Amino acid sequence: MARYTDSVCRQCRREGIKLFLKGDRCYSAKCAITKRHTPPGQHGQSRAKKPSEYGLQLREKQKCRRAYGVLESQFRKYYDMAANMRGVTGDNMLSLLERRLDNVAFRLGFGNSRAMARQLVTHGHILVDGKKVDIPSYLVKPGQVISVRSKSRDMQHLKELREQGSKNTIPKWLELDAENLSGKVMALPQRDDIDLTLEEHLIVEFYSR
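RESULT FIELD:
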């Protein structure tokens, strides 16, 4: 499977905002955006031209795709699914991305970043309704319980979660039981529940060309 192997901090610098791809580092003074708020590369500090309409749409699409850590082909599938659902296409697409198991594990604090949460899922540390699910793109449903398997609960960051609670703000569509390292999906995520700074209508316009 194709994957991004370069520094993820370059992605934040390219988009000009924090995508919170490196967990605790993103909240510290070591954050790349804090240290160098310019695009990567030798021409990053050169005078920027006014982006075209296409350029704005592309950057918004890349920003969203990189935040959730999905490939272009996967991202397009989410758009197609959202376009075939009732309601606003942009809101539907973000709701689908939020319901990914790796994102839910991140939102509950099981992983300090989405990449870390994705690794926990693929390595079989995460259970859905008591059964192992190792597919990061698995879409959770209301009523399902997401938990950490008993053999994996001695990881240091999970011990801290049990003792101190989550460092993240738990969205209202999820409910966390930190002591038992489990969370319940209370409802489908709505646009107001998603804290990413995105203009999803530009993404819809990009794929509607």
